Amino acid sequence: MSFPNIPNVTPSIDIDREDVINLLLASIAFEELGLAHIINAEAEKIQAVIGTLPTTQVRATTIDELLEVNDSVNSTLKTALKTQMLLQFKLEDVLEIPETPIIPIP
């Protein structure tokens, strides 16, 4: 199998400092939105297995099934929390970007 021929691509990206900061803030916001959807899905999972989610017929019939779902939700929420902590660090770093670029002296 041969590799495809890729033409010379010389992308020219022209964004200023303010655009970069806005893009970083938007990326944090979108990641947080994704985590919110995951957290909501986990809440619905618990509601489903205990029988309080009206749109589903799924229901745990034993304590072991409930504990298994609880462990699954717990694991997912731990991972979401870790991601939120990383996003908090990212946000703090973005907010600490100096107004004028720091240029190293040679």
Explain what you see.
This protein is mainly α and 106 residues long. 63% of the residues lie in helices and 0% in strands. It has 2 helices and no strands. It has helices at 17-50, 63-95. The model has no long low-confidence stretch (mean pLDDT 88).
User: How many DSSP E strands?
Assistant: 0
**Global shape:** elongated
Contiguous runs where pLDDT drops below 50 for at least 5 residues: none
Q: Structural class, from secondary structure content?
A: mainly alpha
Spatial extent as radius of gyration:
23 Å
Described by strand count, sense and barrel closure, the largest sheet is:
none
Distance between the termini: 49 Å
Helix content: 55-70%
List the secondary-structure elements in sequence, H or E: HH
Mean pLDDT: 88
- Multimeric organization: single chain
Query: Count of DSSP helices?
Result: 2
What percentage of amino acids are in beta strands? Answer: under 5%
